[in-house]
Design brief:
Structural class: alpha+beta
Radius of gyration: 23 Å
Shape: globular
Number of strands: 10
Helix content: 25-40%
Strand content: 5-15%
Bound molecules: zinc ion
Order of helices and strands: HHHHHEEEEHHHHHEEHEHEEEHHH
């Protein structure tokens, strides 16, 4: 590593405008936290007809207009998200704008139609109901269950005072943005398909580490799974997760856990750009998911498992051919509290006698994370005096992490 390289300009630092991250958060909030009481149609996992979709995207807003149906829809939806426009307000705005346009315009006439347009382009997500106590997802074999078989809680929201069950509003909802269709879409773009093999020909020549491709972990994978490595288009991924407060309100204790994948096949300049950081899961809840985060990771782990064992057929628009794409999750990137939740290894320690002042001072600072919400898991994580006692170290493992369901995880 070059110690003088402190501003990561070759890795995208300084390129992102400062207001882009909050906008993205607002987009998440707007797209995912409204209409919890509306049951949407099940997401269609089938491969879309890209040619028709591309034609659809090119459809002008009206004859002779530079805006397309897609660009106008996305621009208006972003506007709604950025300024917190209500659903009714958005419908009215579309009605007014539609009135200004020629009669043959293609602008959606309601929020519902707008979301349908976005879903056609895989910008949608799957809603999966979860047990209110985080025991399970109502998914796969449990898809039709109405009660959690572990704790007996209802799948639906229970009215607090009357105890009445509202069979329209789910108690808890996980949003999953399926990864396989998005990987397919990456390779449908010739420019991206070419960039996805950057790592294969750009290893460091000067002994410095410029990219994970120069790391020992990368080389270890090269040695252990040569058949995976023989196809440079196979994806190497990293997973990141942490809590944030989507409402940006310092008084709110609501926290949300996004799970993000990044693809290391790209060059350093673009592998961490926001376009290539892939939101895969949104775990909304009043508190953090804690050790139960594995329950929520299941849909993603299932897809990752399939992408390792069987792969999937993907069309490469740059080379004009179809090939079998596989993917491998290399590691997770977290702060210590999130690492504890994901791995099942406790990062919390016990306080040293006579050190309370120091601990309390540290706790005060760590109680507020960057978004202003309280981070319960930060407490006491800065103190560790278990030493080398093997029994104490063993007790630190609280669960078997779901990542071990990936056949290669134990060998990484
Ligand atoms: Zn339960």
């Amino acid at each position: 590593m070059n110690p003088l390289y402190t501003k990561w300009i070759f890795h995208g630092e300084g390129i992102t405008k400062s207001n882009e991250v909050p906008d993205t958060y607002r987009m998440f909030r707007d797209a995912c936290f409204e209409n919890d009481d509306v049951r949407e149609p099940t997401y269609n996992r089938s491969l879309p007809d890209y040619d028709n979709l591309l034609e659809e995207a090119k459809t002008p807003l009206y004859g002779g207009c530079d805006w397309t149906k897609m660009s106008a829809t996305v621009a208006l939806y972003k506007l709604k998200a950025r300024h917190g426009l209500s659903n009714v307000g958005f419908d009215e705005l579309l009605e007014v704008i539609g009135g200004f346009l020629p009669k043959d315009h293609t602008l959606p006439n309601s929020l519902y139609s707008t979301k349908n347009v976005l879903k056609e382009f895989d910008l949608g997500y799957e809603k999966i109901h979860a047990c209110v106590n985080d025991c399970c997802l109502f998914w796969k074999t449990k898809e039709k269950d109405v009660v959690c078989e572990t704790c007996g809680s209802s799948r639906w929201k229970v009215v607090k005072h009357t105890g009445e069950i509202n069979e329209v509003i789910p108690a808890k909802v996980l949003r999953y943005f399926p990864i396989k269709s998005r990987f397919r879409r990456m390779f449908r773009n010739a420019e991206l398909a070419e960039q996805l093999t950057w790592h294969d020909t750009n290893k460091s020549q000067d002994g410095m580490m410029h990219h994970p491709v120069d790391s020992l972990a990368w080389k270890s994978i090269d040695n252990k799974w040569p058949s995976f490595v023989s196809e440079p288009r196979n994806l190497r991924l990293g997973l990141s997760s942490d809590g944030f407060n989507p409402f940006g309100d310092f008084s709110s204790r609501y926290s949300c856990w996004p799970v993000i994948l990044c693809t290391y096949n790209f060059s350093p300049t673009i592998c961490m750009s926001k376009e290539n950081l892939m939101l895969t899961l949104l775990i909304p809840r009043p508190k953090q998911p804690g050790d139960d985060i594995g329950v929520y990771l299941q849909p993603l782990i299932d897809d990752l498992k399939e992408l390792w064992l069987d792969g999937m057929s993907v069309y490469d628009a740059f080379r004009n051919e179809t090939f079998n794409l596989k993917a491998l999750l290399m590691w997770t990137i977290n702060d210590f509290p999130a690492y504890a939740n994901l791995s099942g290894y406790s990062t919390k320690g016990t306080k040293k006698k006579g050190d309370n002042r120091k601990v309390n001072r540290k706790r005060k600072r760590s109680d507020l994370n960057i978004d202003g919400d309280e981070d319960d898991n930060d407490h006491d994580d800065d103190v560790d005096d278990d030493g080398d006692d093997p029994m104490k170290l063993t007790r630190r493992w609280k669960k078997k992490s779901i990542f071990f369901e990936l056949p290669y995880w134990q060998d990484l």
